[in-house]
Description:
- The chain has 107 residues and is mostly helical.
- It has one domain (2-106).
- The protein is 53% helix and 11% strand.
- It has helices at 2-13, 25-32, 41-51, 68-78, 92-106; strands at 17-22, 56-61.
- Strands 1-2 form a two-stranded parallel ribbon.
- α1 packs parallel to α3 (41-51) and α4 runs antiparallel to α5 (92-106).
- The N and C termini lie far apart (34 Å).
- The model has no long low-confidence stretch (mean pLDDT 82).
- InterPro entries: RNase_H-like_dom_plant, RNase_H-like_EbsB-rel, RNaseH_domain, RNaseH_sf.
Amino acid sequence: MTIRKAMVIARQMGWKRVVFESDCKQVVDMLNKNMGKANLATILLDIRNLEGDFDECCFSFTRRGNNFVSHHVANFATSLIDIAEWKCDFPVWLLDLVHADSVEQLL
């Protein structure tokens, strides 16, 4: 559901070249191999239909430990009722996570 929602937002923003990362290997594999369980079929079909709205679209598995910030933003996004958009000022908690992640990458 999160990938689907991200795709809808990306389409609304007019983005044409997108990469959607997830730490759920099973979902990424289902998307990349064009297969899925019956209970996910409707969501996967929606994602496949949305995929055609982009010039380039791919789905990538990223281990949670490799993208700490993404994991926290995904958790935050699932609690949202409406779309959150930060054009000028990012939340302090997000800037702190990005900084900590970038420092760790340098070590």
